[in-house]
Write a structure and sequence with these properties.
Bound molecules: adenosine monophosphate, magnesium ion
Radius of gyration: 24 Å
Strand content: 5-15%
Oligomer: single chain
Number of helices: 17
Structural class: alpha+beta
Number of strands: 12
Order of helices and strands: HEEHHHEEEEEEHEEHHHEEHHHHHHHHH
Largest sheet: 6 strands, antiparallel
Distance between the termini: 33 Å
Helix content: 40-55%
Length: 524
């Protein structure tokens, strides 16, 4: 079998302590950052889709993607030569409570590879049991794998820090799942995705050692992370650990600002799903805001408390950072640096979130009533159901010389029930536009310049919940064309793409309460 041109460059397994047991029996792993495991051999793997862009990152060509070796390696059927796959050990706070050891229960890292001066971890998701699988099977189903594959790539092209997805394979095996946890399990097609990231370390990777009072392993892991991923920081010193925490605060802040900008709701922001690099990871029951609603969450498992709703995501990042601070504290034994970094996060979030909104509105400079303008907009967007993506995209067509009625007419396409508007609602919209138009007239940029800038931050196309669901339903019947179409669409989310115009549309009515569209569970 010809070899793939991958340059193996493992450092995680070489530099960090391994679990001494080599079986995949469920167990509590102590004093180690990972356990060696072997991926499960799928019965009849087939490639459904591969991302040529992600392949390029790791040094693979489009030709490689079509090879049998690629199919075998990235379905788990065959190991890369000299590779020793492993599952990572981590813990986590889930929905506000310490959950103890979690770990890669259905993810297996194949290897790290280096290409063009960067090192990447290649990780299969859904390829069988590990010591961390607890009571579950280590497998993944087609629907959640399609969602992860498409969304990782879509997020990247939207400019959001994220893990990437190299490939989506069917395993040829069936997996039993109870989608809505209501006692109706059914067999679904099994799948494996290969995720790619600089590292899959999470906040929970650090928390587990602090919880085990294992300062030595925690220190090794922190030093390792600083050395490889925060190289401008000095490892091994108290100041270094403090700087590291601050840097994680910075990256996490950038990530969540992007989420708010594009209307992405992660859905399960537990500390085990928070990347130490500030990447979006672990795409589960995520979703995209359609009607602008800060209370919305796609995750039906969380529908009662809505802990991870759109409007709370920054608070939840903050909460998670606080848990990370508790873990790293034992390396410094001083509170002050953590308190300062967390305070910095709070203040900076307010500043950067405001700036992000000014960018979305196409405004430069500072005007005294800008804070009010943004706050009022968040209010009017909630008067009646208003599509966030369409609203901001249409807003860029407003011209300085227009009246408030003309401007309002331009965004009516974003309203879900434009024919049922009350007079008071129209008046509130018009008064917001009056303020906005006044503000626009203070801008020195031309309408066309402003539009170009707005269109670079307000995507025209996002992977709406119902779109992924359509691709899933077609794929279930063996038709994979829509996966490719949505993949192509999401490569240029800020461009007009006239042949794709049908995806610039409000969520269809059938999708409002459909499972997979607005209701999702963790059952993947
Ligand atoms: P998640 O909610 O996907 O972040 O998963 C939380 C924890 O449950 C992680 O430790 C996962 O590895 C584990 N997990 C989720 N689904 C499965 C599964 N099907 N088999 C084994 N472990 C799983
Ligand atoms: Mg997870």
């Amino acid at each position: 079998m010809p070899k793939l041109p991958l340059k193996q460059a493992d450092c995680f397994t070489k530099e960090l302590p391994a679990d001494s047991l080599l079986t995949n029996e469920r167990r509590q792993v102590k004093g180690a950052c990972f356990s060696y495991v072997t991926p499960r051999v799928p019965s009849q793997p087939s490639l459904l889709h591969a991302s040529a862009k992600t392949a390029e990152l790791v040094g693979l060509t489009e030709e490689d993607l079509e090879s049998e070796t690629f199919l075998n390696v990235f379905s788990g059927k065959e190991l890369l030569s000299n590779s020793k796959p492993y599952a990572m050990c981590y813990g986590g706070h889930q929905f506000g409570h310490w959950a103890g050891q979690l770990g890669d229960g259905r993810a297996i890292n194949l290897a790290e590879v280096s290409h063009a001066g960067e090192r990447w971890a290649l990780q299969l998701k859904g390829s069988g049991e590990t010591p961390y699988s607890r009571s579950a099977d280590g497998l993944a189903v087609l629907r959640s794998s399609i969602r992860e594959h498409l969304c990782s790539e879509a997020m990247y092209h939207l400019g959001v820090p994220t893990s990437r997805s190299l490939s989506l394979m069917l395993t040829g095996d069936e997996v039993l799942r109870d989608v809505m946890y209501d006692g109706n399990p059914a067999y679904e097609k099994g799948a494996v995705v290969c995720r790619v990231a600089k590292s899959f370390l999470r906040f929970g990777s650090f928390e587990i050692h602090a919880a085990n009072r294992d300062k030595e392993t925690l220190r090794k892991l922190a030093d390792y992370t600083i050395r490889h991923h925060y190289p401008t920081i000095e490892a091994g010193t108290k100041k270094g650990y403090a700087d590291f925490f601050k840097a994680v605060c910075e990256r996490s802040l950038t990530m969540v600002i992007h989420w708010q900008r594009v209307g992405f709701v992660h859905g399960v922001m537990n500390t085990d799903n928070m990347s130490i690099l500030g990447d979006t990871i672990d795409y589960g029951p995520y979703g995209w805001l359609e009607g602008y609603d800060p209370n919305w969450t796609p995750n039906t498992t969380d529908s009662q408390h809505r802990r991870y709703r759109y409007g709370s995501q920054a608070d939840m990042v903050f909460w998670n950072l606080h848990k990370l601070a508790n873990a790293l504290y034992i390396l410094i034994e001083e509170e002050q640096p953590f308190v300062e970094a967390l305070e910095w996060f709070r203040n900076q979030y307010a500043i950067q979130e405001h700036e992000m909104h000014l960018n979305k509105l196409g405004l430069t400079g500072v005007e005294p009533r800008d804070i009010e303008l943004v706050a009022d907009l968040k209010g009017v967007l909630q008067l009646v159901e208003t599509d966030m993506t369409i609203f901001f995209r249409r807003l860029s067509s407003v011209k300085k010389t227009q009246t408030e009625q003309e401007a309002f007419d331009l965004i009516q396409e974003a309203l879900y029930s434009p024919d049922e508007l009350k007079v008071e609602t129209i008046d509130q919209w018009k008064s917001w536009f009056a303020h906005y138009l006044l503000r626009l007239r203070k801008e020195s940029r031309t309408d066309a310049e402003r539009q170009a800038n707005m269109n670079a931050v307000n995507p025209k196309y996002v992977l709406r919940n119902y779109m992924a669901q359509l691709a899933i339903e077609a794929a279930d019947k063996g038709d994979y064309a829509l996966i490719e179409e949505l993949y192509q669409l999401s490569q240029k989310p800020y461009e007009e793409q006239p042949h794709m115009q049908k995806w610039f549309a409000k969520r269809p009515e059938w999708a409002r309460v459909k499972i997979g569209c607005s209701m999702l569970s963790c059952s993947s």
